[in-house]
Each structure stands twice: as structure tokens, then as C-alpha cells.
Amino acid sequence: MIKLSYSNPILCRPADTVIVLDFETTGLSPTQGDRAIEIGAVMLKDGKVVDRFQQLMNPGFRISGFIESYTGISNAMLADAPSCEEVMAQFADFIGDYNLVAHNASFDQRFLDAELKRINCHYLGQFACSMLIARRLYQAAPNHKLGSLVSYKNIQHDGVFHRALADSEMTASLWLAMLEDLQQDYQLHSPDFGLLQSIAKQTKANINQYLQRQG
DNA sequence: TGCCAGGCCCTCTTTAGGGCCTT
Predict the structure, then answer these.
(1) Residue A15: band (very low, low, confident or very high) from pLDDT cuts 50, 70, 90
(2) What are the extents of the domains in chain A?
(3) Which Gene Ontology terms of cellular component type are present (predicted)?
């Protein structure tokens, strides 16, 4: 994969390509010893999935029964999986310096940063959070969990939840739905990564006024 | 059995508290 270096990571990075990713982990906090057990990601280019990445990884210790039940990933499945270090090195090559998207991105960013730090690797892409943007665009949704938003937007899925690739595919579909809604509802002809990032930072009260100004 | 984190947002706020969301 060609790696590009620019002085402005948001404006100069290829705006038509983003990586949508999702981690399954042993718990909620890498600072408390939790590790990644699966990474899934899709590459979106010009609104289409052009590449995928999915890999289980062995965290080096047994995962809890809660996580086995929650994700469907068992200790037996992880026993023969490659190490986190091996998988994350491959994943770092996959994401390159592209911009990144995740649902509740602060969670995935913490694990991405922690796992890449262990192998002395880093990335230059910027993160956008589909949950924060959905909170602005879909204020009538019952809540802003990924599964709820998938139902709210009538996004097709195969019924698999809490697996890394399945969740990243659904997040990618949600991302594209938000782009489409911005084009249709606010006549934004070319909503890009930077605009979606800025939408997340607007207040709930002024989001419509902000979008109309953008249009 | 129930809790463990962290960032963001909203409001009955700003010298704060609590809910949401992720595994």
C-alpha cells in the first residue's frame, strides 16, 4: 500500500477513501489491561466497499465468559489465532494513513493507539465518529446504538452483531446513509470527511442552521 | 453479585452531575 505524507492530514488526504473499523476486545479499557481480540474493517472508496480486513488475535490470556457470550468469540477460537502484535502489524499496513471511521470512535481509537504503541507503530489519519454524527442527524432515533441506527435507517444486514467485520460493515452502511441524507436533505453536493467531522462538533440546537449554511 | 474506563453531550450547568455508547 502506498503511504502518503501531507502537512494537513484532513484536507490533503484522499477525501474519497476512508477506513471503517471495529474492535472486539476483552473489556472496556486498555489502561486496565484489556486487549483486542478481533479487528474488522472495510475500505470505502467513492461510496463503495473496495477492500476488507478481518482477523482474530490472541491476547495472551483467557477471555471472560461475558465476552465469549457477548461476541461469540470463544477461547477455543483464539487459541490458534496469531498474536495481537502480528495482526496489528498487518492492520497498520491496511489502514495506511487513510482517515478512519468508527461507531463511538473514542473507544476504538483508544485500543488502536494502545495496540499500535506496543509495536512502535502509528498512523496519521484522522478519526470521525459515526455515533456523534448520527446524534446530530437522527435526533428522532430511539437511541444511537449501532444496532438501533441500522434498524432506524432500514439498513440491510445478516443478523450478525458484535463481530468486528459485521459491525464495521454496518457502520460503513450507516456512514453512507448519512452522506446520502446530507446530499438529499440539505442539498450538500459533496459532503466530505472534514464536513462530517465538523457536524459532530456542532450543538444539537444549531445543527439544522449549520447544515443549511453549508448548503 | 456487581463493578471495573473514558469521552462526549445535555441540563435542573459552568466551583457539576448524570446519561449514553463502546467491549
Answers:
(1) low
(2) 14-149+157-214
(3) cytosol
